[in-house]
From TrEMBL, chain A:
It comes from Isoptericola hypogeus. This is Transketolase. Residues 11-176 form the Transketolase-like pyrimidine-binding domain.
TrEMBL record, chain B:
InterPro entries: THDP-binding (IPR029061), Transketolase_N (IPR005474). Residues 31-232 form the Transketolase N-terminal domain. The keyword ATP-binding does not apply. Gene3D superfamilies: 3.40.50.970. SUPFAM superfamilies: Thiamin diphosphate-binding fold (THDP-binding). The keyword Transmembrane does not apply. This is Thiamine pyrophosphate-dependent enzyme. Keywords: Thiamine pyrophosphate. Belongs to the transketolase family. Its cofactor is thiamine diphosphate.
């Protein structure tokens, strides 16, 4: 990872992303940043130091992705950013065609996560983002849980050519962990005890929820493609597994089922429920509780899984 | 860099052999006008305007032609075959299992095809990004062809605005206007571009000297649109019996 030019590094994931743009543009001459207004106000230093390389198309999200596709066809490496609802859902066909079908890459970096903008209501919430991106061929999805992980992922992916979705959330863990695409055991236990797999920023919550339960806790920042080999090795011949994701429940269900297809397993998927729209405002903490994604909400179904 | 044809050649009507190549795609010896609505513009571009080389289809400094109106690829396929990007035999089994040419083109399958298209309203925003990426880095021009009905898609409005505000002098949009738009364009198509700072030209498709001149012309500080009216009668062609 390159060093930050000035000032203390932010622990907030989204702020850290903005802080990394200027050093990224220094380090990678092929990188351009494409915005639809959101984020522009945080990037004055990068805009000043790198004329023409932070491209704000205005509130035009179809053009946001189309322009990114064109830049990639010209050999540029676009980093594209806005809230998840406007980055993934509104221009979904552009993501499918202007990037995927053209067989070009980009780094899409979203803010807002599932319910960070809890007070903003449904228009600014996109818990289905990872499910939607994972439904398209050739994407890698990173869900970092710490600002240092954000920086490491950005610098690695800026150098690449693939299609990458990086999901930034207001929720975060106290410490960074390895973001190498693999599953990592965060709390060990007896062999073949049940495993709770926490994705990204859910780790600290899962560790708290299961502190006194007979489970092992694993973690990954890269739910797609899922580290199937790592999951199989960890889960053993008769897995009992809970997957805790900070977005639509069951988003990783197909990948988990495919990884464990050769053995009898019991798998619980915890995430933002898909059957109803939560028509409430409040804080992200309120929403986590309402969705069963706070320590108490996670603990209940995991205990049921343990029987 | 090699060009397919020197730009000083006197523009001529589309040769009969190229029309015959189109017919090999469409299977229609009477030359259905809808299959030909883009032919004059595409032929003039490849014969007179674009700096492209079939022997170096990936040259980073080549001009880019983006067929946004991907549902009418027959004329583009025919012109690319005529210019040597792929064998003319490819035209005989379009959209079959073994064919690289489909009813909508795929850039990963066809030399000379710059974008996969078919769903309307994607080419112009991609062209804006391509022009931004090439500007000040390459002499390449970006020429994107859209249809008048395709302009219904709001993504085009976004791209017209962005290209105008960014002053993309290396971008040209060719609007093939066969008056197929259901709700029409009160005040004209060019006015939509003119308001956003584009340089505008309106020509009739069979007027090849003016068409070639309009397609060659660029301005350093603004994008160019050429609206090509394909509904005017072509005095150079006889109506098929």
């Amino acid at each position: 990872m390159t060093t930050q030019a000035t000032g203390a590094r932010s622990l907030d994931l989204r702020t850290r992303f903005y802080e990394e743009i200027d050093p990224l543009l220094d380090a990678f001459p092929d990188v351009d940043v494409v915005l639809a207004v959101i984020g522009s106000g945080y990037l004055s230093r990068a805009i000043e130091r790198h004329p023409g390389r932070v491209i704000d198309v205005g509130i035009r999200e179809q053009a946001l992705i189309g322009v990114a596709g064109g830049l990639a066809l010209a050999g540029r490496r676009p980093i594209v950013h806005t809230f998840a609802s406007f980055l993934v859902e509104r221009p979904y066909e552009q993501v499918k065609l202007d990037l995927g079908h053209q067989d070009v890459g980009a780094v899409l970096v979203s803010a807002g996560a599932s319910y960070d903008v809890s007070a903003g209501g449904r228009t600014h919430q996109a818990p289905a983002d990872v499910a939607l991106i994972s439904a398209l061929p050739g994407w890698t999805v990173h869900v970092p849980g710490h600002a240092d992980e954000v920086a490491e992922i950005l610098h690695r992916e800026a150098e690449g050519t693939g299609r990458v979705y990086v999901r930034l959330s207001g929720q975060r863990n106290s410490r960074p962990h390895p973001v190498d695409g693999r599953l990592h055991l965060m709390r060990d236990g007896a062999r073949e005890t049940p495993v709770v797999l926490a994705v990204g920023p859910m780790l600290d919550t899962v560790l708290e929820a299961t502190a006194d339960l007979p489970v092992r806790v694993a973690w990954t920042a890269t739910p797609h493609p899922l580290d199937a080999d790592g999951l199989r090795a960890l889960a053993g011949p008769t897995p009992v597994l809970a997957v805790v994701e900070p977005y639509l429940e069951g988003t990783s269900a197909a990948a988990v089922a495919a990884a464990l297809a050769d053995r009898p397993s019991r798998v619980l998927h915890v995430g933002v429920p898909r059957d109803a729209e939560l028509r409430r405002y409040g804080t992200p903490r309120d929403h986590a509780a309402a969705h069963g994604l706070d320590p108490a909400g996670i603990r209940g179904p995991v205990k049921e899984l343990l029987g | 860099m090699t060009t397919t044809s020197p730009p000083t050649t006197t523009p001529l009507p589309v040769p009969q052999r190229v029309r015959d190549l189109v017919a090999r795609v469409t299977g229609d010896e009477k030359h259905d006008p809808s299959a030909h609505s883009t032919l004059d513009a595409v032929w003039t571009l490849y014969d007179q305007v674009l700096r492209v080389d079939p022997d170096a289809p990936d040259d980073p400094d080549r001009d880019r032609f983006l067929l946004s109106k991907g549902h009418g690829p027959a004329s583009t396929y025919a012109v690319l075959a005529e210019k040597g990007f792929f064998p003319a035999s490819w035209l005989d089994d379009v959209a079959s299992w073994g064919s690289r040419l489909g009813h909508h083109p795929d850039r990963t399958l066809v030399p000379g095809i710059e974008i996969g298209s078919g769903s309307l309203g994607h080419g112009l925003p991609i062209a804006v990004g391509l022009a931004l990426g090439l500007r000040d880095r390459s002499p390449a021009r970006v020429v994107v062809l859209v249809g008048d009905a395709e302009l219904d898609e709001g993504s085009n409005a976004e791209a017209i605005q962005v290209a105008g505000r960014f002053g993309l002098g290396n971008l040209t949009c060719v609007v093939v206007d066969n008056h197929s738009d259901g709700l029409g364009w009160p005040g004209g198509i060019a006015a939509r571009f003119d308001l956003e700072g584009w340089s505008c030209a309106e020509v009739r498709h069979h007027d090849h000297p003016r068409l070639a001149a309009a397609l060659r012309r660029t301005e350093p500080d603004r994008p160019t649109v050429v609206v090509v009216d394909t509904t005017a009668a072509d005095p150079t062609r006889e109506v098929a019996a």
